[in-house]
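Q: Give me the 3D complex with fe (ii) ion.
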Amino acid sequence: MYLPNSHHTTPDYYQHLLNITDSKNPALEPYQFSLKSLTQPGGASFLVMRNLPIDRPLPEPPQDGKRPTSKNTWISEATLFSIQRTIGLQPLSYIQEKGGVLVHEVAPVPGLDKSLSNSGIVALGFHTDDSILKPEFRPEFLTLLGLINEHHTPTFIAPIDWAFAELSSRHQQELMKPQYRVESPDSFKIFGGKVLRSELRSLVTRNPSGDLEIAGNLYAVTTREPQAQVALDSLRTVLPEIAESVILEPGCAVIFSNSRVLHGRAAITGGKRWLQRCFSRKNLDALRKATGNYKTHSFDIQQLILA
Ligand SMILES: [Fe+2]
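A: Here is the predicted complex, encoded as structure tokens.
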């Protein structure tokens, strides 16, 4: 999509692009059926797509987590939005994360190298995004689109049902008891930089459709119960063994359920790397009701935490 650029990098402009993006992207034609199955109970929990349209040439990756003003076209953003449109998903963002824009730039930010977030370069352990929020406020789906990945750094995708199948029933039962706490992630800037810890929760649950779900950063989950810790450790051990390794080369995208799949990334060992990310949900009703925001797709995370 060739749109007049460039100072248009405000949240409003992404909203404008979303409004004019339709679902008829020929590059998505081969994936129509598989994409729609993602929202069906018992359907696939993730899908990898290749040869999708991105901007060429691209400018240098951003170093500040913001869309470079020298990216003169919006092709990759339109690709991300047309994936959402194909399934009927609504993009969303949080005001306190990446300035509330609907497409996040995922690239190392110098100075945040060690941050356990999309701005860092150290290995990012298995997690789901925004698990501190109530389920109805979290992104249901994440889409990552590769723009530049010089060192072929893999993204790891680990469906919880694959992992669970490898665990003893004793460990499965422990993970389903309300005896864990999760923490708010490094990428949030809320309440002046506070780390929030959740109420006691089950780490793994079964949804009404019978699918297993999980929410948490496994490197920031805590428990006081020794048996619960043992079960958590065995889950951590199993995840790298069952995980699918997806190299997000330019034009390759992965969409996955943020409740049925844990994701992570290997350390970035050098070379340029730049992905774009989009959060989405089937509907935004709960977020709108909780915040009183009926206009934009960008929500105040502090309001959501207090809701
Ligand atoms: Fe993440």
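A quick observation: The pocket of fe (ii) ion is lined by residues 127, 129, 263 (CB under 6 Å).
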